[in-house]
Amino acid sequence: MEKKDISKMLKRELILELHKQRAENDKQEELIQAKIHLITLRNQVQEEKRKSEELQEKLAIQDKDLKPFIDRENQSLLAKLEKITEGNKCYFCKLKFQSETHRRAILKCGHVFGEMCIHTYLILHKNCPICDFPAVLWDICTRWRKLSENSAADDKDNATHMAARLQQGYRIRPTGY
Ligand SMILES: [Zn+2]
Ligand SMILES: [Zn+2]
What we know:
The chain has three helices and two strands, in the order αββαα. It is mainly α. The protein has two domains: 1-87; 104-167, no CATH class. The termini are far apart. 12% of the residues are buried. The structure holds zinc ion (2 copies). Residues 90, 92-93, 95, 102, 114, 117 line the site of one zinc ion. Residues 90-132 form the RING-type domain. Residues 11-65 form a coiled coil.
């Protein structure tokens, strides 16, 4: 083999080797880039996780702060509901008022009862069973501005209205007695 040929062959091999090296380097570079990308993603996930945990903590604190408030509101609503329900029922027999058989009757103090029930009670007693305000049979009033069944709000209006009129000395003879 001539010296020239050897040199030519060496040169070609060198070029091939260089190409191989470059390809290898490119692959290495790609790998590094992929790794960097992965690390960035992992960091992002960690950050999101931390944020979500922080948010959850904040929400838990808010829940704790809100709970007593909501409980209080619930209690007060339940109490109101109870009052309305009670206002629609007779203190004595716990039955709902009915225009025919179980009429509402109001005393001077503003408390409302079934007419027959309070009548029976006042034969033996001289006061309102709820507030002890003096009461006699003549105080039983059954004349309502307008009798609307099953309306606690109207009952309250009626009761206030009647109590005010009664306090002004306005008396109505109970019907039927
Ligand atoms: Zn009754
Ligand atoms: Zn009373």
